[in-house]
User: Fold this.
Amino acid sequence: MWQEMNKPKMATEKGASRVLMLLGQLERLNEGPKASDTDATRQITGRILHIIQTQEKTRKEMMSKGSSGMDVILSTLENTRDLQTTLNILSILNELLTVGGGRRTGVFVSKGGTAILLQLLVSSSKDLPLNEELMLHIHSLLFKVGPKDDITSSSDRKFGVKARLNGALNVTVNQVKHNLQNHKLLLPCLQVLRVYSGNLVNAVSLGKSGALELMFEIIGPFSKKSTTLLKVALDTLAALLKSKMNARWAVDRGYMPTLLAIYQDWHRNDTRHRHMIIRKSILGCIKNLTNIKLGRKAFIDANGMRILYNTSTECLPVRTLDPLVNTSSLIMRKCFPKNRLPLPTIKSVYQYPLPHILAGGPVAQLHSLPPGVDDVVDESDENEGTEVDTENDTENEDDETGHKTQNDDIETDINKLRPRQMQARPFDELRVYERFCLEFTQYFKVNDFQSPGSVTPLSVDPNLHNPLIIPTKQNRRPKNIQPPRSNDPPLDLDSISISKALEGKPDPDLACSLGRLVLDGEISVNGESVNGPQEESGDQAVIEVPDTAALLPLHDPDLYLEMVKGTRSVPAYTEVAYPDYFGHVALNLREPILERAYGVQRTKIFQDIERLIHPSDILDRVVYDLDNQSCPIPDNGESLKFNSKFESGNLRKAIQIRKFEYDLILNSDINSNHYHQWFYFEVGNMRPGVRYRFNIINCEKSNSQFNYGMQVLMYSVQEAINGSPQWVRTGSDICYYKNHFSRSSIAAGGQKGKSYFSMTFTVTFQQKDDVCYFAYHYPYTYSMLKMHLQKLSGMCTNEIYYRQDELCETLGGNSCPLLTITAMPESSSNEHISQFRSRPVVFLSSRVHPGETNSSWVMKGSLEFLMSCSPQAQSLRESYIFKIIPMLNPDGVINGNHRCSLSGEDLNRQWQNPNAELHPTIYHAKSLLQYLRATGRTPLVFCDYHGHSRKKNVFMYGCSVKETVWQTNVNTSNCDLHEDLGYRTLPKLLSQMAPAFSLSSCSFVVERSKEATARVVVWREIGVQRSYTMESTLCGCDQGKYKGLQIGTRELEEMGAQFCVGLLRLRRFTNPLELHNHNSHLLDMENDLKDPRSIPNITSPTTYVLEEDEPAFLEEVDYSAESNDENDPDFEPDLQDNRVLPDPSSDSEISRQDSLT
Ligand SMILES: [Zn+2]
Assistant:
């Protein structure tokens, strides 16, 4: 077959070197008759070998581009039957491939050299006795060609498959078997075996051929001899043990204790750490054995925990031994016996009766579970069922680098990508929403218009057909805007005061002398001093409320308490958290993203492992327990006191582990058994100057910004009283890692073998007798929203049209406010009224996800800007009518949920088909949008504010057919893809103005998993082209003015204000004609912002929605080996390569942005 291929062309020019001449002669011999001159071939190859052994330049000549030297050599090798010629050629190839980098190997592979070698190996293995030199040469060459650990493009990535198909595996195994004492031949054979076993199918086959036994014969206790050989044998063994079948075999034969004994022996004898690499290889074998449940059990039975713990502790002081410590730590974490969470059930402590339960819905599922099955410890292997120990593997098995980057989550159904533009409900049903749009129908009576005294507060008037009166610019501002209607408050709250809780015994600390802010009619007001011990009879304290009025114009403690009275919580909270009462003044100091010291996570993990090694050190003392509120809490003065029975609080249990360490468990969302991430709780009775470690042990996400510099928030009541009422980023040694608490498959989307994650942080309290609060992010309660709205309505001037309606009542009986903000008409003239009514609508919403409190702070910034008296704000109001739902999920916020409403569902997955009873806020928000569309007032912009827990900066998701289709690589020519690029304008404007905003993180791809979100439904069904989710980081920024800083309320509020300014600029770029026509294919004035160069860039598969944008974890912890979260339905789609490439077109904008700000 060689001969039929193109004839190699030799250089024939004059002066061709000697080696080329020889190659030419060889080529002619190859072409000659079969029984050609064997002697001549032998001689020529011998001469070539001699020349290239002595002159490097001749090797270069042979391998230079265009030279056919390799073809001639390989052709000769394939055809010759002469042993000496074969050896000559193998030596020539060995010389050629020894140097020259990967290119020469690449040439060899591309010319089919691997197969020729493998065939030679198999055919010569049939000649007995075997020629040792030949075997040595072939294996040395094969080793050079096979892939190494650092996969280079030139090595043969199909090597493993080729070897198996050519039947070479057993030849090499036999060579090893028969040459155990012949190290010279054994080494190259082992090296090749090592390469073979990198392929999992080969590993199974080699295991059956006895390769495992052979490896266990070679490896052994400490010895300074033949360490190279030992290393290769260990690495081969580790590769073989990646097969679960092989691992089972090894465990069954008791090799776990053997490996541990060998490891200990090397640890003891390798005192100068010369052979760290061998020790690491032994651990590699142990690690692969513990991939199976049986192996983990064998490890525990063989006392592996203590062995690795002790050896690691001895290795810790030597930094160069870190790889040993890290691998040991990984093994110990895998083998740590899984526990169930110390809870009676993982279902939320609180259940809320629903008006009806949707069959097949999450609550129905929750109720259908037999008691006690929801938290079964599952020790099975995480990836069980994905075992590759079959011969059915495809030939692609070696393409380890060829991970698919395409995401199946992208919507590919063109029909689903087209806006539906259909009338979902008959207009008669929608007509009731007219009451939320009075500005379009109200008449402005001239006499009222001119008499400012006759202003009446606005409220929903059921009699829609009568003329209504609204105040105009020339009126005085309305004094009494009605607060949202609420039903009878759940408690009889006659008097509210700050005092000590009555049931509390006298206690010298502030926690008690301050008492709690309790809403209770029987409470008396205390007096006297704050500090120092108090008498039982005189345990009175003055609470100095920090005077934040000047700094916080929207905050008023008394008003806050008023608002709390009308807030209905499922647990019927009677306490108020101090931070919410006092208020939070944003820090002037910018807080940098925390840099984590090396080895922090390891230290924390070792402390966790010590729980198992030294169980007698563990207190295991429950100090707070919502499940068992009658349980006596130890009052020994040695334990911290916890509480979170207040709005948005959600601590379920606190367990004192050691003197200064506590495990904390968060409550699940109500009517659910998972979703925990948000936390908010109070701590008292602390000792100042002591390092306390807190572990939140039931986190669910597989990674967190807590691993990338984000800190928790703390609010000290003492600091507040001393003049610093503020949430401060705090905590050191913050880590987020997988722990040993087993996650029930019921709470893990049906996946077995999942674990929870721990978020751990360390805090040193500064003040004696303090009460401190900790939160996931800056809290923002529903009562706070009501207070802010009340205050904002008071800021209303006669230029502002401000109306607050109740969109609906929530399941929990709370009001969902809907705001309308625009400018008053200049006068009651027809022209001015017409201008007033023709303003396009901008629809904003926020806080559908309760844990994303940052979205409320952004919304606060937007609202304050909209109500401000700046000329920009006025011109914005004159440009648009704003419809704003600042809190889409009040019940979730009140009850400390992270994700859901009381229905136990994520409301932002209900927009396609919201249920009026179960998802009232979504149902009515969507209906209002449908009403607007039906009356020709489809919003120009829709934006739902969110928070993002795994990315930095602020960015937007939008919807584009084109950008979605491009992602799928579907041939786009067969579908009409006319698409207005207007959806890109607002994000671009924001990236120029708002320092926290990052255009390169934006995405406009429509994902299947998001088809029921507000953004996609409002785009598809309502026809809003500019339909967005705006995501704000919970952590900080890695670009722009705030690069390297954690985000604070000031920056979030600024973002909200800048969003408004962006809308004002957008006005200039939108065609006025478009405003009444949502099918806008009309003139477009946005061209100057549509940089076409930026569009092709979007086709990069990394641009669309990515959950994580962080690099691989800084501390080497092998998450991939044990974690398989990609399929977790709770998580956003993940990608292998998830670095977001910066949009080159945004570079110019960053510089422009600097000049703009
Ligand atoms: Zn969200």
